[in-house]
Amino acid sequence: MTQDQTIQALSEETRTFAPPAEFTANANVTAEAYDRAAADRLGFWDDAAQRITWAEPYTEVLDWSDAPHSKWFVGGKLNAAYNCVDRHVENGLGDRVAYYFEGEGGDTRTITYKDLQDEVSRAANALLELGVKTGDRVAIYMPMIPETVFAMLACARIGAPHTVIFGGFSARAIADRVQDCGVEVVITADGGYRRGKPSPLKAVVDEAMESCPDVRTVLVVKRTGQDVDWTEGRDVWWSDVVDRQSEQHTPEAFDAEHPLYVMYSSGTTGKPKGILHTTGGYLVGTSYTHWAVFDIKPESDVYWTAADIGWVTGHSYIVYGPLANATTSIMYEGTPDTPHQGRWWEIIEKYKATILYCAPTAIRTFMKWGRQIPAKYDLSSLRLLGSVGEPINPEAWIWYRAHIGGDTTPVVDTWWQTENGQILISPLPGVTATKPGAAMRALPGIVADVYNDQGEPVGNGEGGYLVIKEPWPGMLRTLWGDDERFQHTYWDKYPGVYFAGDGAKRDQDGDIWVIGRVDDVMNVSGHRLSTTEIESALVSHDAVAEAAVVGAANETTGQSIEAFVILRESAKGGGQDIVDELRKHVRTEIGAIASPRSIMLVDELPKTRSGKIMRRLLRDIAENREPGDSTTLADSSVVARIQQEVSGA
Ligand code: WT7
Fold this sequence. Notes:
Layout: H1 3-12, H2 21-26, H3 32-39, H4 41-48, E1 60-66, E2 69-74, E3 77-78, H5 80-93, E4 97-102, E5 108-112, H6 113-129, E6 138-141, H7 146-158, E7 162-164, H8 171-181, E8 185-189, E9 191-194, E10 197-200, H9 202-209, E11 217-221, E12 235-237, H10 238-241, E13 254-255, E14 259-265, E15 273-278, H11 280-293, E16 302-305, H12 312-324, E17 328-332, H13 343-351, E18 355-358, H14 360-369, E19 384-388, H15 394-404, E20 411-414, E21 448-451, E22 463-468, H16 483-491, E23 498-506, E24 512-517, E25 521-524, E26 527-530, H17 531-539, E27 544-554, E28 558-567, H18 575-589, E29 598-601, H19 615-622, H20 638-648
Parallel strand pairs: 4-17, 6-7, 6-8, 8-11, 11-12, 16-17, 16-18, 18-19, 19-20, 28-29
Antiparallel strand pairs: 1-2, 3-13, 4-5, 9-10, 14-15, 21-22, 22-23, 23-24, 25-26, 27-28
Helix pairs in contact: 3-4, 5-6, 5-7, 5-12, 6-7, 8-9, 11-12, 14-15
Bound molecules: 5'-O-[(S)-butoxy(hydroxy)phosphoryl]adenosine.
Catalytic activity: acetate + ATP + CoA = acetyl-CoA + AMP + diphosphate
Domain AMP-dependent synthetase/ligase: 92-472
Domain Acetyl-coenzyme A synthetase N-terminal: 31-84
């Protein structure tokens, strides 16, 4: 579907689904929460902050005097790992399962909160022995295994902000992030299992380290047992240094605004943004929203966020939110079709999962595979379903509820971003009569709106730009090393108001439907990618003179990456070989997730008189549509020529 068709489909969607009466009767949150927060927003967050154990109390909920820089829970002190682990053990929950880990190959581990306390303490002691100090940044490049959580919490425990780099990124991407963040210690694994095979991680780190002379230690978890190169003096096995540590470690309390982590995310320029989250507000925001949106009952729920810890969804809803709430979670290492297409449903049946949270891309893939696959498993334990990462089309929403949710479970479509840290717009499962495809309204304590170009709220039935009008606890504090970009990207368009970069619509009832990015950021399978970043990768290849990248609508992945490339004279005539070569080049520059679906070799690109590439027209071509208005082009016949070239190819 094109974006226009998406908007059309969303506009025609009129079904609503009220929560089941029994769900409402037992729900954690009632409609009263909206009133409470509307009457006293900061008082509401003050209440929510009581979910956290503070080593020293805060004196003020919010300091916004240096806007857009916020300070939440001013003067408070806490330790994030203590809040996620130790306090639960102290409260007698040491035997509760924190994670059911399911390896791709079928190996399993059950990790209780007591196990987690021991492992995190050992890892923290090891980091201290390796000379990591409070404030030092540690990079983590890992598969989806329990040690990834141990490593993150060990960092949090000693106040060393982590920066987790998704395991699908390339050596170049690692090096960029490590350099930008000033990292000296990297934690990785030999490899992880992906589609039934061990896939290397350490080797990728080794390559990245060639341009990272400041990294003095690479700590390596043994996961697959595959061969690895070893740099004496730099590389250390996790099992050599962590296993022999004491499981006693006293967590130190840090300021509420102490940096917890940096997560890199693509923006509209070639350089990823280092989004900084701090400790107190982030934990309050993730813990409250996890409890409210997923109606978490920690003593009985088995919760599963089927995402990678390398993205913010994993940080907030596999690690910090669920652990702060003493939840039992499932962690799965591999892909949904290994070794068979029923793998997720087998896992849900096995652990009697009660809540599933995943991306629309996954749901659309399951639709394609057919409903007969989930139908073979007992999914009756599920009581709530969530969606995140991209707009969910009504058809996928309905399918999800019907074939996974047994036609009874509420479905919550949750809108948020890496920058937000926590869910901001979502139904409340015991309160909201949901509409398929709508994130509905801002959560209690969040003030969202849809603005027109002039910065005025649009009326019902109208579209515009999604904004957040008041600060929230889990919000980013700045961009690492680039505060100017922070202010410019989010706060300049509408002064004092957070500009999300998404288009949205208010329907006749005033409910919010998020439509998608309005900038040069693509969303492919729920992953954020920058057109400019991929263009830079392409033009860094000798054969390329110019490149333009657009996201075209795609039935399964939401968007797909379509590249238009002008080759240098000397490289012309290379045919398919050069296309393969360029695809490989993007893989080494950024990672496999950024590899274009198609690379179209063209002789020119549509440009305005001022030389700006008109991506809109390229999108029309990629989506096989009659190109729109091209009168502002310097040469209006260029589009027809490109169409000819593309269809001839
Ligand atoms: C962008 C943020 C935060 C989780 C993972 C993505 C899109 C996210 C929804 C939704 C429509 C959504 C937006 C947003 N998005 N959730 N429920 N409905 N669009 O994080 O990589 O920071 O991407 O994802 O376009 O701006 P991210």
